[in-house]
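Below is how a single chain appears once it has passed through the pipeline. First comes the sequence as given, then the structure the pipeline wrote out for it. We keep one example in the README because the format questions we get most often are answered faster by looking than by reading.
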Amino acid sequence: MRLFIAVDTDPALHPVLSRVVEHLRSAGADARWTGPEQWHVTLRFIGETDDAMAGRVAGAMRRIAAAGQPAALRLAGLGTFGGPKPRVVAAKVDDLSGVISAAARSLEGEVRLLGFAPENRPFTPHITLARVRSPRNAAALADAVRCESASVKGEWLASELVLYLSTLKPGGAEYEALARARLGG
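Resulting structure:
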């Protein structure tokens, strides 16, 4: 099983993100675009594991969620990952209360104790909107990201952590919630 732990986006923000994705798409970049069923903020990618370990990860997630509280989050523009040749276009997320950043740090410690390799990148809250496959129309996409960034606004309260199973398919990844844990118990 390929797993990750995330917080969901608020469906009330999906029209904003959908409009932005449609505008970015018009740049003609060679990218795989995501949709509402894939929008979330990943706190920790777990990777491939078995049922027994998935249960241990879910237990760690529940303990961390119980010790936390609902998280105030805000969409804060657009950005890219991958340097001068971006591989990912994302909506930036501000963690207004610091709750999900703290949960991500705690999860990192817990999954390392379970034997998973340390995450080699700092936690940067975001919602992936596209995965760029080639440099085709990259300049047009970069312009669209700059033009649309200011319109990506909205706030929500994340109330739970979710352990997701990710199944890779030709049309993109499909996610299934395996466990949910309310922030604050």
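The CA atoms of residues 65 and 183 lie 4 Å apart.

See the next section for the split statistics.
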